[in-house]
Amino acid sequence: MRLKVAVLPGDGIGPEVMKVATKVIRTLADISGFEFQSQEYPIGGAALDAT
Questions:
Q1: How big is the CA angle at 46 (ends 42 and 48), to the nearest 5 degrees?
Q2: Are 12 and 46 in contact (CB under 8 A)?
Q3: Which residues face 21 on adjacent strands?
Q4: Taken in order 16, 33, 36, 1, is the CA torsion positive or negative?
Q5: Confidence check: pLDDT of 32 > 90
Q6: How many Cα neighbours within 13 Å face the side chain of 6?
Q7: Residue (of 16, 11, 4, 9) closest to 45 by Cα position
């Protein structure tokens, strides 16, 4: 099984939470034998600041 996920960390605590959550999912994928792919996209104030 392959899992593709868009990661939207947003502002505030979001980037820290998403970093750990992505790490947990990668670990579960390794243990369970499924493929995990993620792509991070800017959203919220961080996205506005980047433009």
A1: 90
A2: no
A3: none
A4: negative
A5: yes
A6: 5
A7: 11
Q: How confident is the model at residue 11 (pLDDT cuts 50, 70, 90)?
A: confident
Strand partners, 35: 2
Residue reference for tokens 């493929």: 35
| Per-residue model confidence (pLDDT) at position 51 | 81
Q: Are 37 and 2 in contact (CB under 8 A)?
A: yes
Q: How far apart are the first and last CA of the chain?
A: 36
At position 27, the amino acid (one-letter code) is T
| pTM of the shown model | 0.78
Q: How many domains does the chain have?
A: 1
Q: Average pLDDT over the chain, rounded to whole?
A: 93
Domain that holds residue 42: 2-50
